[in-house]
Amino acid sequence: MTNIKKIITLSALTSGLLVAGGYKIPEQSLNGMALSAAYVAHTTGADTAYYNPAAMAFMEDKQHMEGALTLVHLPSNEYTLFAPLSGESETENILIPSGHYVANAMGDFRWGISMVAPGGLTKRWKSPYQKLYAEEFTLKVVEINPSMSYKVSDNFAIGGGVRLIYSEGVVNSDGGAIAPIKREMEGDTIELGYNLAMIYKPTTDINIAATYRSNIDLDQEGEANLYFGGVGQQYDATVSVPLPAAVNLSISKTWNNQFTLELNYERTYWSAYEDLDFNYGTTIGNPILVGAFDTPLERNWEDTDTFRLGATYVMDKYTFMGAFAIDETPVPAETIGFELPDSDAKIYSMGFRYQYSDDISVGAAFLYTDKEERTLTPGVAENAVLVNGGTFSGGGAFLTTLGFSYEF
Amino acid sequence: MRRMFRLALVVPVWFIVGCGGLDQPANEIVDGGEVVVDLSGDVIKGSLIAAGTPGVDETTTVYGYKAYKIPYTTTDEEGNSVEVSGLMVVPTGLPEELVAGLGLSMVSDSHETIFANADAPTQIAGATSSADGSPIILTSLGGFVTLQADYIGFGDSADHYHPFILKKSLANATVDFINAAKVFATNNDINLNGQLFLTGYSEGGYAAMATLQKIETETELQVTLSAPMAGPYAVEALARGVLSAPVMPIPSFMTNVGYAYSFAYDIDIASIVNEPYASSLDDLFDGSKARPEIDAALTTQTTGVDGLFNPDFVADFLAPEDNWFNLAARENDVHTWVPQSSVRLLHCLGDDVIPYALSELTEGTMLAMSGGAADVSIVPIEVAVTQDPTTALRYGHVECGPVAYSVATQIFAQTRAATIGY
Q1: Please, which of A232, A239, A270, B375 could form a disulfide with B342 given CB 3.0 to 4.6 Å?
Q2: CATH number at residue A297
Q3: CA dihedral sign, ordered B346, B352, B358, B363
Q4: Domain count of chain A?
């Protein structure tokens, strides 16, 4: 029963996205989704606590809260080479909630808190050669992010917060008819990080903002069952992947208190992901299992740039939003694997918010991530299948968000 | 603290996130043991072909390999009960009508000399979950159920000294395992046909002969045919040869004999082995070290002030009058009796560790004692392989092992075909 509850709850919480390059998820609210996270300089709701806590200093002095529920639809990935090496991953449908709160001002100070899923990944292949590497590769991340702002002056504020991260990982590999080996691993971890923010308003209609989120190594600790043939043994197991540091620089300009454009640049320091190295508590006696599951895999991911342009138009009770983003993949051709066959992407999003009453607004947003087809040059990738070349296609993501906000 | 963090962080906010942990591996449950290896014939065949195993190709019939670690109780040299373990390897993938109708024949294969507990049959299987050693030949290629007792001193009894070349406890461990395996087979629907073969290489050859002697003189078990291989059956003769030589190429073997006999016959090890070696033997033979490490810690000089064995001990042993070791070695000889069942002594002509002459001595002694009536004969491995009595081919002790097992498997298979019908 515990396991069932766990599966249901975590599936609903986090999980597997390829919304941005790598496994980071920048969109964490209705506005964030509608604006493809081009939402750092010109934040307006309780989600300010997450996107730019410094800007809480300039929010209207009342309590703000909001929640959202996002349905993520992840089409399958296809890998095309030749039979039997070609394969296809599962389609995924996942629900992700988020919540934000900003308290009343306390002099020049103000605090808020966000509960989000800042990262996640799930890839489940159903074809034999791919299952050997990633029958399931899931990373779930939940973050509670209490934050504080300080109004330095009427046009400048700073902020920061503590990132409390709970993360779970599942790694299953199954050689099936190809090799008599199988791995089942589950681990979890609690980690700490921090975030910093500033906002400067040189004029009443221009905001300049910068935020920084620290790198957090998700040191998953748990157990792994390694099978050779029909017999498995359980080991204590650890593996570490980073939730990388990121810098956001944004500028927004508002015309007639009605139309706002925001340009956002994000640098994500994926180079922290150097290798995928599973470690086990006791020595594995079977050399085939050692070769398959206990040999560090180089990743050598690269830092990435993301450019976003978001537009917000306010008219009477409605607010309309739309955005476009260009997102690089951090995954180099040499170390690409089936657990994350990532590629460069273009992101399109739109949404609206309806002011139901003075205190309550509701809205919806839709985001589409268009992943580029990725063709591998033979002889480049280190993976024993991908070294033959081939093409990854499909993938991407469709996200639909429903949200509400309440001010009091 | 970590759980408190998790509860504080996750439960109030995200409902309940359990921390159930990963279930134990879904291994088959059996009565009276545990499955430690379970591989299909195709997997075994693939690895044999990949390893370039002679005579194995895609057309070869290779059976699956399911190994069970079975705990059981035996009796040590001093008469005490000891909890020990053994490995039972059962072929899978045989035609169901053959298994159900004719049953499986069993080979008790006593393993060769080992020093590290990690090299014991159940330990290798448990650590690697893979097929290893002679059961690949006997089970996967021959279709026999293979039994390998760990012996006292290894596996579940790793804290006990190993009774190296001590026939009573080696035979006890083997016979008790045969009986335990038969019970295990009954409890787990493994259909045995009652046919029992004995074999073993080097120390295992000695143990197999000791086992045969115990079975024929003390038990109701019936042995179909025995093929002990390259065993030091004549302990006193072997010891005389080793201790007479100025150097020992592999000092660990004879030292292990002295070490085990010091326990079994309650003799101070310092009267057998010189210092500083004597006081290091508890560490060297503690089951954590393999032969190369032990050999490196000893000298190859047999005796003398700087040698391995105490000169007084060696002189007493080689003197015309019997000392305790003469009597003990003779008590543990396994060539001075008359087997009632058929025995084939497999030995390589080129054996550089256990002289071929020991098998000749064994054959000659048994035939002489029976007035020529015993069905005992030597099978020179090189001749069996080449079918040429004049062959110049020679295998040393180490290279001979796998070849000897192939020949033994052929002999057993011929006997099974003639008696059981497959």
Answers
A1: B375
A2: 2.40.160.60
A3: positive
A4: 1
